[in-house]
Backbone:
């Protein structure tokens, strides 16, 4: 059931969002063999060794796709918003 919901997320997106989300998924999964796709909170999540790593979503105002890092508040870097 989770796979269907996850796949439906990608399939119901309009272009160019669909292609962008699919490309981001492939890039994230290609970083490490311990990263696995999951479906949490009605969002496509990526788990690293069973722990939440990041998820994909789109900005409500601009409709631009983004990657959000789980516990990103703990990261201190000037290039991050």
Residues:
């Amino acid at each position: 059931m989770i796979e269907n919901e996850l796949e439906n997320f990608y399939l119901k997106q309009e272009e160019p969002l669909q292609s962008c989300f699919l490309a981001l998924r492939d890039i994230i999964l290609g970083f490490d063999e311990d990263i696995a796709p999951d479906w949490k909170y009605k969002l496509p999540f990526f788990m690293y060794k069973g722990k939440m790593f990041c998820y994909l979503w789109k900005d409500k105002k601009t409709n631009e796709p983004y990657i959000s890092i789980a516990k990103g508040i703990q990261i201190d870097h000037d290039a991050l918003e």
